[in-house]
Amino acid sequence: MPIIRVPGFKFAGVTCGIKKSKKKDLALIFSERPATAAALFTTNRVKAAPVLVGMKRMQRGIIQAVVANSGNANACTGAGGMRDAEAMCREAGVRLGINPGLVLPSSTGVIGVPLPMAKVKSGIEKAAAVLSAGSFSQAAEAILTTDRFAKTASASFRVNDKKVVLAAMVKGAGMIAPNMATMLAYILTDAAVEAGTLRAVLKLAAEETFHCVTVDGDMSTNDTVLFLANGAAGNAPIRRGSRAERRLAEAAREVMKELAIKLVEDGEGATKVVEIFVVGARSVAEAKKVAFTVANSKLVKTAFFGSDPNFGRIMAAIGYAGVPIRPERIDVGFDGVTVVKNGVGMPSRERAAARVLRRLSFRLKIHLHQGKASAAVWTSDLSYEYVRINSAYRT
Amino acid sequence: MPIIRVPGFKFAGVTCGIKKSKKKDLALIFSERPATAAALFTTNRVKAAPVLVGMKRMQRGIIQAVVANSGNANACTGAGGMRDAEAMCREAGVRLGINPGLVLPSSTGVIGVPLPMAKVKSGIEKAAAVLSAGSFSQAAEAILTTDRFAKTASASFRVNDKKVVLAAMVKGAGMIAPNMATMLAYILTDAAVEAGTLRAVLKLAAEETFHCVTVDGDMSTNDTVLFLANGAAGNAPIRRGSRAERRLAEAAREVMKELAIKLVEDGEGATKVVEIFVVGARSVAEAKKVAFTVANSKLVKTAFFGSDPNFGRIMAAIGYAGVPIRPERIDVGFDGVTVVKNGVGMPSRERAAARVLRRLSFRLKIHLHQGKASAAVWTSDLSYEYVRINSAYRT
After folding, report:
1. What is the least distance, in Å, from the CA of B247 to any CA of chain A?
2. Taking a C-beta distance cutoff of 8 angstroms, is the pair B75, B46 a contact?
3. What is the predicted ipTM?
4. Class of residue A330 by CB neighbours under 10 A (exposed 0-12, middle 13-18, buried 19+)
């Protein structure tokens, strides 16, 4: 894999001992100049301290560095947790020679345990000492928890003859659910982008990517998606409605979609990636509601794991989605193999459908025949490994 | 266990070959006289044929027999399925010598496969031939699918010096979710009860029992709760607002609560029964919403399985329940061991809490400190066995 570089950004990922495994657990992302920032945070009412601090930082909309640790979420830690999140920013500010108000903190891992601040501080010092433009993947590694692999993607495009880069790293694996920032994600570009444009591009791209994946339906306390544009490319700031904005939006969507699907691939215990594609709905909202209800059904997800084209469970989930569907109109198919036609099951097609379900990735298409709206959602299966990871996570 | 008898009712449970396992798969419940009936059906928009037929039967509110098969749900089977459900009633009517319009059909099992009607009919004939007052438990066995044990309960009480009996059988195991009839359940009494009173008693008792349990959050297409009062006791019909009504309601609640908890105990793969008790809510609706969100969280349920008092996942689930909670007020405890106080985790109590979680049954108490309403919900853990059962159910 080629090394990802984003002009004007430096990275570090180091081990400071928060994780017992001695894997990397502290990341720094540093922009040589203050960057325009847009962010999305978890909509969970229980928000971790770094999220609360990050939301405060975003009032100004200018960020120059991210300090992130894995192994400890600094959530449900009360006033002490808030002090620790601020202290992380202060330490990073000192080591990077910038105002702590320009540092956004993130934490991910176990909830309810105070951050081991001596380790965190030594980690920040260590990371600041090894910052480099070529260490993107080290930083991406240092934000992982139960993830099996680091998830990064990049794209480049032209703005008025200047080549600019857009790259991102995400962390996911568990507590992946929609309607929130979903995970830790840092999206970086050297393009100059006006603040309002950056916010609009992030919001729309997230709606079509990160907000369309689900692993377990659980929504985390710590999720943060941050988009930084540092302007190192020297272009005139990208504005709303411009052709450059469309290119930026395309690049963001492309990179974020690639990462969203990687999130599902790396979902805890996932052995398969399934696209739930609902068509013929009266509205996108109804299509999404049906798709997510099917995607989050424990019975459907275990059937996926067992390569069982159990259309009965799919029909049952469609039926309780809270959308006024008409059962007798519904068609259901797996990669072109129809298993329900006009609401009636076709047991004779099950053998052919089971062959589709043995693939590592396939599409479940649900046609409601009620309208013209559609939506796609990506999900994983529910395996023994999911239970193993989550019953033994801390023990 | 003593044999359950309800005066005026006869039962049968036989094998007719719908299940490959040769376990019992056809049940008859017969009342010597037409009984006053109240019923609750699944609120799933995808309803099985027997549910649609049953709803039609309930327009008159008089039922004399139930014919139920297990191993095949007769759902997603189109017009043919409707004909089969009616044919079951016809066959039962002929064999029992009653009007088919007094027969309520039920089916449970695999969805989308046509009923093997020759087997069903021979089963009805066989069952009608062996009907007896002492075969309550045989009928209870014949409605099971992935259940590990038959679930029955009974109580007796006095109405004006007459002793009356109330007994019930349920079938559950998977697709157990609230806000619906939840499962197959037949509740029988020899008391005479006015129709409106029977409906009111059933609705209220279900609200506090069957509607408070969840195994997987999936809602079935076939669920039916039927309450029959045949008046064989010879009492004056029980009326609204009477003391007898209170006794009937108490007996119904007691029997249905016992069965609701047995449903969770027998939840697919369940190794533990957990009561989620939410107090200090602003309304019962909000308390229930929080309780069910925690009860259905895959991450919380796997932590229960692993005896991990993972209060972070519990706090996260409380936070995304859609209720305007105040994190900093919340206390969380397991059987008296507090693990979260004022929203802050207490890692030092985890060892003591883990000992509680190793019990077969315990209470998770969540205090929201926002009001005076409370609600209790029962749920199971999410185990390897759940995944095994549901990934291999049909294969």
Report:
1. 35
2. yes
3. 0.73
4. buried
